[in-house]
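To assess whether ligand presence alters the predicted conformation, the chain was also submitted together with zinc ion. Input:
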Amino acid sequence: MACGHFLADGNEAAFTVDASRITFGHGCAAEAGPRARALGAKRVALFTDARVHETPVFKAVRDSLERAGVDAVVYSTVRVEPTDASFTDAIAFAKETRADTYVSVGGGSVIDTCKAANLYATHPADLLDYVNAPVGLGRKVPAKLAPHVACPTTSGTGSEVTGIAVFDYLALGAKTGIASPHLRPTEALVDPEATLTLPSEVVASSGFDVLSHALESFTARTFTDRAAPTGDAPRPMSQGANPWSDLGCREALRLLGKYFERAVLDPNDAAARERTMWAATLAGIAFGNAGVHAPHAMAYSVAGLVKEFVPSGYSQDEPMVPHGMSVIVNAPSVFRTTARFSPERHMEAAAWLGADTRGAGPGDAGEILADRLVDLMAKLGMPNGIGGVGYGEADVAALVKGAAAQTRLLSNAPYVIGDAALAELFRGAFQYWA
Ligand SMILES: NC(=O)c1ccc[n+]([C@@H]2O[C@H](COP(=O)([O-])OP(=O)(O)OC[C@H]3O[C@@H](n4cnc5c(N)ncnc54)[C@H](O)[C@@H]3O)[C@@H](O)[C@H]2O)c1
Ligand SMILES: [Zn+2]
């Protein structure tokens, strides 16, 4: 299916759709016990963080495992925004526990930590072995992991359906990750009730992550722009925009345009929180098959080089830039620049998000989308660009260095982004409003 795209010789002509088995709806977290049992669980390593440990959804999962007669050993000290050190601690726990099945209850931080623990307990190796090159060795994950039932509690990352685990590599001052289809959880139990205890700040930040997953996958290079894999090499997970990811992106953007502000501003608006959770799931499946690009590549250094910024609403009171925030501060600058490659997609996205596109021409698409994003950022308490989290001209070289290492993401952008282009994108993200 060429989808209207010219097929160049040697380029890709097909795409693959992968996702975890997904159950979505109120109360489904309480299905964790029977699901784990059906996967053969006798002894489960149950991952969460200190705050989620106290929530009703964690209790529902633990009670369900108990009712199913599954022995659960709890690891409740997952670090919010994990690091190589916190991954290493979780891996040691997993090796000691000798679980046959993994269950995670939490946001992306918990689910990613559980993926890493499962990986290194199942296929032991040095931490950097499986980490994406050039930061790590990029060794292939050799085979399947133990079953993993993921129960997301933020309307955010989509980690429950992706084969990615992200951490902050402290020595480098940048985030990096591990990417393999084997990391994708076996089952995702997406229970919107979990989001009712989320602080508004987390709904905002993780919702902007979702928004950017959808926008980046929708505006990535298309799958037909990539060279076809040679021999029996598998397709990369970052395949580029394709008809399947487009479906999820469009619906996620439509839902966010309608419900995102309500979900943040009114904690009692359960319908808006449920729709935002569904948008997160859809965008997760979309970007898990299409891949994100520049805003995420840049986010990895915005988060990794943090100096003094401490966000409100998060359980750790040390400096950090929450993932969604570290992404969205770059987004208006990037989309102003990428609009020339697919103005109609940028315009369509702006319209789904509620921008007034009447009378606008293709040359206006970047500005219209960027303005709508800036408007939402200001309304929903995001920092005013990367300046708002403490960066200025003196930091550009370091920011570029960290982002340039994210070759898996940058190669998914609609144009070649070298160091000079990255510097321009960071400069365009310093400040968005007076
Ligand atoms: N694997 C992937 O595909 C992928 C994609 C995007 C981001 N990520 C990673 O995921 C992490 C961010 O995850 P996140 O945005 O989901 O947030 P998070 O897991 O970092 O949690 C954010 C905060 O919300 C709290 N929290 C979570 N659920 C709660 C609930 N139901 N009630 C009350 N408090 C709750 C946590 O304790 C924490 O303080 C980052 O490390 C990011 O890099 C991974
Ligand atoms: Zn993200």
